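Just scan my protein:

. . .
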Amino acid sequence: MVKIKDIELGEFPLFLSPMDDVTDKPFRQLCKRHGADVLISEFIASEALIRDAEKSFRKMLFDGFERPIGIQVFGNDEESMLRCIDVVVDAKPDFIDINWGCPVRKVAGKGSGSGMLKDIPKLLKITAALVKHSPLPVTVKTRLGYDESDKPIVTLAEQLQDVGVAAISIHGRTKSQMYRGEADWTLIGETKANPRLHIPVFGNGDIATPQQAVEARRRYGVDGILIGRAAIGNPWIFEQTKSLMRGDETAVITVAERVEVCREHLLAEVDFKGERQAIFEMRKHYGAYFRGLFDFKRFRIPLVTVTTLEEVLAVLDSIAKHYESETHSRPL
């Protein structure tokens, strides 16, 4: 049984990897219903939380069935992050995840996220203070290092363990790589194999199929896997991965199922954010839900241009009807 402190996660937990403007409450709940074991919020700026920013507080909203759930925060100022911990604790998640891994300029360029990998002593100092201050387990998500010449993750993981971090998630790229190239799992495996490391090590990066998740578990011995972009438009990847790990046959997702779950996702977003915002934000999901369908172009433009819920639902009905006698579906 894999645990974060006393929080039981299962024998090999599958995480929905936190993604900004993607892993909101409706999407997390959808993935949970389709097999995700552990959920983490979108990342939240510590400065925004202590300023009572409404959008940041909404990111912390969750329901009980989403547990175990972590709330992820980022920042670069120790005092602000300590104050933010108090706010997060009031939301009552199961654990707090510190983002030392985001590579985007607006975060890392200010010394937060993976930008902190240029100053490991400061990273460790802040992390130690947060662990000491928090009544909840503190975990860390990070990267291999800052660039190709500096990949200290094996040592860094041990140092994070020494300051009290309860688990570490590692994305197999450097800050400088952003999301380019291929994730290198070799150092993730070396980190897990470190005999001095006793906290769980979770791997992340380029897990696009259930087969890749199963292979990563076999080759690198990690305690669990984070699945991110591959879950967009494909929440079934979690239950499919579990089926494959049990040795069961892989399932095929029909067009009717895709339409049904896309509709469910849309309606949940409308309930959570209101019709106008939900319709706009769902546009980034439609292409993924219907990826690979033959002759889908006729529906793609209407999906991203109509402006009312009634119109979007009508387009989804048209998709279901158009493909009802077809066999256009895909294995997960």
Observations:
- The domain at 253-331 is CATH 1.10.1200.80 (Non-ribosomal Peptide Synthetase Peptidyl Carrier Protein; Chain A).
- The first helix runs from residue 25 to 33.
